[in-house]
Amino acid sequence: MSEVQERFHRMKDLPSTHLLGTGTAMCSGCGGLEALHEIYDVLGEKTVFVNAAGCMTLLSVYPFTPFRGSWLYTAMASATAGAQGIRDALDILKQKKQITEEEDLEVVTLTGDGAAYGMGMASTSGAMERDLDFIYICYDNEGYGNTGQQYSGATPHAAKTATSKGARGFAGYKKDLFSIWTAHKPTYVATVIGSEPLDLARKIEKARNLTGPRMIIALAPCPTGWDYDPKLTVEIGKLAVKTGIWPLKEYIDGEVVHTKVPRQRVPVEEYLKLQGRFRHLFEPERNDALLEELQAKVDNYWEGVS
Ligand SMILES: Cc1ncc(C[n+]2csc(CCOP(=O)(O)OP(=O)(O)O)c2C)c(N)n1
Ligand code: SF4
Ligand SMILES: [Mg+2]
Asked: Residue 103, Cα to own-chain centre: how many angstroms?
C-alpha cells in the first residue's frame, strides 16, 4: 500500500468530527464539503443533485442524507447525462401541467475533478452543446480522492499522489478546465473556493438567476489527499488565492473577468510548504529549479491580467 493510501486509510478509521447526523463520515476539514455547504446555502432545497461517484457520494447513503432536496447517484462519466434526463422529465411534467412552476427544481450536477476533468467530460461537452439548463459544480481536490488520491487531469505539476511518487512528483500539468468549458460558450463559468465565501456566494447567486449551462469549479483543499493538518484548510484556501495559484474569475457574455486580483502576490512556496504532497520540494534538500518553475508558471498567468 502506498504512503498516500495508508494515510487515507488511517484517516478513514479516525472518529470524524463531521458526522452530519446521517451516520456518514467525511474527513475533518474537507474543503470540498466547506464549499458545498456554502453553495447549498444559496441554492437551497428546490434542487436535485446528480452526483458522480466520489467523496461527496458519502453524503447520501440511502435513505439518509443531510440534504433537504433530492439526490441521484450516477456512474462517474454519466452525471451530466443524468442531469439531462431529469431536466427533460421536469420540463415534460411542466408541459403536462403535472407540476407547477413553483414545484420545478434546479438541476445540479455535482462531481469531483476525476469526473469533471476526465471521465465525465464528453457528456458535459454534449450537454453544453445542447444548451442544457443546469448548474455543474466540480469540487476539485486535484485527484481521485475517494479511492486514495491517484492523479487526475486536475493534479498540479510536481504534486505527489498515490500514482506519482518520484522525486519530482506528478510529471503532467493540471488541465485548464475553465478554458475548456468557456470554449463551449456556456451561459456562465466561474471559479470559487470555500475560503472566500462572499465571492463564492455572489457567483452562485448569479448562476442561480441565469438559465442554460452554468459551470462552477471549486478548488477543494483536501487534508487527506494533500497531507496537511485539517485545521489548515481555510489558510491553505486563502493562500491558493493570495499566491495566484487559484485565480478567482468568471466568464459571462463572452468575457472573462477576474473577481479578485492578488496585486502583491505571496510567493507560491508559502502555499506549497504547508502540504505534504509537495514536501519533496523542500526535503531532504530544496529543489530550487522546480520551485522556480512553479513560480514562473503562476507569474506568467498573471502577467497579462489587469
Ligand atoms: C468508471 C469508474 N471507474 C472507477 C470508479 C471508482 N471510483 C469511485 S470514486 C473514484 C474517484 C473519483 O474522483 P473524483 O471525481 O475526483 O472525486 P473525489 O473522489 O476526489 O471526490 C473512483 C476512481 C468508478 N466508480 N467508476
Ligand atoms: S478525501 Fe479529501 S475531498 Fe474526500 S472527504 Fe476527505 S478531505 Fe474531503
Ligand atoms: Mg477529486
From this structure: 29
